Amino acid sequence: MNVAGNDLAEDNKPESTGSEEQSAFTKFLLTLVSILPWAIVGTLLWAGIFVKPTAVIEEVVSAPINVRDNIFGVAHVDGDVYLAAGNYGKMLITKDGGKTWENQDSTVAEHLMDISAWDENRAVAVGNAGVTLMTEDGGKTWVSVDSPKSDVANKLLKVHTYPGGEALAVGEMGMIIRSTDYGKTWQQLREENDIFMNDVVKVDANTIWVAAEYGQIFKSIDNGKTWEELFTDSPNSFAAIDAKSPQEISIVGLAGVVVGTTDGGETWTYVSPQQSGMTEHM
Hints:
The structure is a single chain. The chain is α+β, with helices and mostly antiparallel strands. The protein has helices at 3-11, 18-50, 273-276, and strands spanning 71-78, 81-86, 91-94, 102-103, 112-117, 123-127, 132-135, 143-145, 156-162, 166-171, 176-179, 187-188, 197-202, 208-212, 216-220, 228-231, 238-243, 249-253, 258-261, 269-271. The longest helix has 33 residues, at 18-50. The model is unreliable at 1-5 (pLDDT under 50).
């Protein structure tokens, strides 16, 4: 046996070095780096085909009242319940005295200039283009009804409700209309003429007063069958009227004007803006 020769052959084999191991590791890293972009692309492609994301869409609820809303009329219904009407058919209700409001669907886009209520269920609203609305369920549904119209202009400015289903509304072209069935039908009380009727008040069963532009006042003592035109010393248009009795009437208007009578319109007391210190429209 040549044991010595075998031992010599083994002694002559090249020894493994750390540099060879490092070279193999470097090749592995380079290979990994070269395939990494393709792995990322493949992962994204797989995700695009097989992973279906679920979209989470949160409903955006707009506030009942925003900065572009103009409120023109408010009606006290009962207790803490109020109705409000405004531009572009805006209709609102509050049941907590105005702390929170809810939108109602008026079904119209015209400006609503005023609103009035008989009780918690029945109310009426009026506005541009002669719009007249009524509700019998507290505003859950509003119904547009026919009313007398002019061929010239038809804005209705004010409406007031009275016991027994009566309502009076006034507006452009001398319009004075009345309903006696909770706003379902309307009748014209006076022929039209080129004047704005700005407010109306019914004092008793027969006496109705109307405040108009250019310092004019109209009075009926037979429940609207005939009308008397009264003149005051006011050069300003009147905007609102109220009555303490058939004889005692107070009226306010543009530029702070205030007039009143205590004898049913026989004489009038005129308070000028200079006397009252008021120059704002009222």
